[in-house]
Design a protein that fits this description.
The complex is a heterodimer.
Chain A: H1 2-11, H2 15-25, H3 27-44, H4 46-49, E1 56-59, E2 62-64, H5 66-75, E3 96-98, H6 143-179, E4 185-187, H7 188-207, H8 210-219, H9 221-249, H10 253-256, E5 258-260, H11 263-276, H12 279-288, H13 295-305, H14 308-321, H15 325-332, H16 337-345, H17 350-374, H18 385-394, H19 399-427
Antiparallel strand pairs in A: 1-2, 1-3, 4-5
Helix pairs in contact in A: 2-19, 3-6, 3-19, 6-11, 6-13, 6-14, 6-17, 6-19, 7-9, 8-9, 12-13, 14-17, 15-16, 17-18, 17-19, 18-19
Chain B: H1 2-29, H2 34-39, H3 51-67, E1 77-81, H4 94-107, H5 110-128, H6 134-150, H7 156-170, H8 177-195, E2 205-209, H9 215-224, H10 238-273, H11 278-292, H12 295-306, H13 330-368, H14 371-378, H15 383-421, H16 426-435, H17 439-467
Antiparallel strand pairs in B: 1-2
Helix pairs in contact in B: 1-17, 5-6, 5-8, 6-7, 7-8, 10-13, 10-15, 10-16, 11-13, 12-13, 12-15, 13-15, 14-15, 15-16, 15-17, 16-17
The chains are: A mainly alpha, B mainly alpha.
Chain lengths: ~425, ~475
Amino acid sequence: MADKKNIRKEEDQSYWAIVRRQFRKNTSAVWSLRVLTFIFILGMSADFIANEKPYYAVIEGKTYFPVFKGVGVDLGVAQWPKELSNVTWRELKYDKVVWAPVPYSSTTNDFKNSDYKSPLGEQNIESGRWRHRLGTDNLGRDVLAGMIHGTRIAMLVGVISMSIALVIGLFFGALSGYFGDNRMKVSRIRIVLNILFLYFAWFFAFTTRSYLLADVLKVSFLGFFFQFFISLLIFGGIMLIPNLLAIPLKKINFLGKTIEVPVDILVSRLIEVLESVPSLLLILSIVAIIEKPSIFIVMGIIGLTGWTGIARYLRAELLKVRSLEYIEAAQALGFPEWRIILRHAVPNALTPVLISVSFGIASAILTESGLSFLGIGVPPEQVTWGSMLSLARGYPQAWWIAIFPGFAIFITVTIFNLIGDGLTEAMDPRLKQ
Amino acid sequence: MFKYVLKRVVIFIPTLILISILTFALSKMAPGDPVKLALGNTEQSGESGGSGEKMAGEKAYRAMAEQLGLTLPTFYFDFSNAALPDTLYRMVKKGERDNLERLISMYGNWPQIEAYFHSIKQLEFALLDTKQDSTTYAPGRIIRENTGRLLLEYKDRNVARYVAEITEASKQSPNFNNVRIAADKLAANYAAVKAKATPGKNNIPAIHWYGTKNQYHRWLTNFLSFDFGISYVDKRPVWSKIKEAMPWTLLVNVIVIFLSYILAVPLGIASARNKDSIPDRITTFILFIFYSLPTFWIATMLVIFTTTDEYGMNWFPTFGLGEVTPDMNALEVFSERGFHLLLPLFCLIPGRLAYLSRQMRGAVLSIFRMDYIRTARAKGLSEEKVVWIHAFRNSLIPLITLFAGIFPAAISGAFIIEIIFSIPGMGQVAYVALVARDYPMVFTVMMFSAFLTLIGTLVADVMYALVDPRISYK
């Protein structure tokens, strides 16, 4: 029995296991992870915690589950029965009813409690169940409900924008880090053909389809992503042609001569350009040219501009990794480059990326709340932490609107920073025993 | 050294060009018709008066478009397709041009579409020259509205409806002789567009070369000679507005960065020397909180709690930079401005300070692990000498490289603070311009901040080379 335990301990010397062990020693990071889990669950189940619709209701002998139905309606798979469409849920006559813990949605206007009702002061309510525990704003919207729904927005912003940033950052980071300035040797013919066909691929994938893409974007995001995916397929398909053509053509001596492509210089310059425009201003200018504001567009823009950190970290790590023996071994075995990059190089260089993602989520949340604080890029009816905080500027008496949403932003940002710090420490080779 | 600096400057040129292309592309994508915005959005009604007045309106429009350089092609070349004519840029009205591009993408036969488009215009003029009386009023209105719509409509169903309505209305007045002819021609031309459609031409790629007479070239050369155009809002030159705003942004950022560095260096060294002691832990904790505090939250809280009477702590001014009258002496001006800048600076410094001193602490700690520090200690140097003579200079190196990253972050961070405290800097100007959709202003500010950032990077690079003798200037 004791022997088995020892063996297991010794087996667990993989890099990730060490990192995990080191991370667990960092109490504040571990606690941050716990709080994050809580916030994440809170955000994802916002509809079930703060909702103006009841969980369960019996009206005139009929049984309904309005909260669940509401989720279905939002997803487009269900429809409200006629008697329940456009109703004020609070004023219906119920035989039996079970309300959500916070019986308000973020957009519910409680007109009886409009114009900033303090959480400590008197509120115009029938019973304690309807009390606005964190007060209301100018339109009588419940601050607590807004906070809970704002959590979901913040989590979505972090996850979606960083996923986009991760894809782009990994791509460019891997390219420039692995190939550097002299490792990518390409035959002349392949370069010429690729540049030539890049034009055709772009033309047929995006130029000729631009109106189609623009039209479908106005209708739905899902349809847009589908069409965009088709565009990407066309693009990839056309780009296959030059690379297949190059195989026989490079047998010709002149055409087959290889050139070193300075990938690193090109990517580094691109990163430099993006980083030299102050990010907030870049995002603001992009948001400004969009006619119909949407939180998803903001997420997309944050992702599109926020990948440089990931790419830089991955690049720096890969520059170290690529000269290690096991990469040489893989090259000696004749593995194709993409396989070495994907299977051997990148997985061993991912740790600093994780740190960058963690800090990146913090800054994405900060950027989004800054934008909604300024009221730019987010539709006015959307309740977010930032938009709530901005209301406080116009009405200094409402300390509750200044304190709670700001505190929520602060805590979330702190958590991600602490996790990033914990990861940094856990991955520091000097701390390994 | 000179060569090194020169090399860095030369590297900036492609970067700047890329930034300028990015900015220009964004400005081109901005919604709205720039000519109308520049003219002050006065819609030429064309309801009364003859074709002469309409012509005058079109002329004014064209003159403004020419003044803004919008009658030129957009870029040195364009990648388009065989269906699009290379002269489409001459169509100055953005909405009409976009609509024509749509029609071409649908039917692909430019000659027919051009004829159709001209017949719409001819109909407009024919209607304006018609003698007005009671019989022309109602049908005239239908025709006028529908021709206006046709210029901006591409969906076949709607176009067919408008054309049918026009044909119907043109038969309703005896004065409509010319109008009827024009309307019939319009209907015939639209039928021709549909009959002779060659949508396949859209799938043939084509490249047009325009040379240096293009909007981007003009914009860039103007930019380099400090001509940034005219603000849509108050018709003032953009440059004069930027000139007023930039000193404030620079002032705030220089103070913030200077104070943060001054405070961060001793703090970082002290907490590294006493690593894991209780004071170190407390400072690390406080600095961590500073680092995560959203500046706009602190600012909002400070504005609410310390600048209003609500909580009995009305200690600071809320907005602006105070009034400075000519008869005030330097000290008074300084104290007035300083008093107003106190809160904004207080919001901005903690974040930078925390970041820098964390980095400084880390740098000093890693230097302490170096062999030469052990050697210095082993040969019996006092701790003071070890720290200040051997460790200090080397630990400054990462701090200097950070300057390149801090500068853009500081400008970004100061933007929101400028807006909250109404400091008339670049952030405030950009925000006001954004809300008013004053695009020349927005994109000039963007170019300028990028430019400032690049200069910040250059300064960091040069200082880096100065401090670290290991860096070769080649």
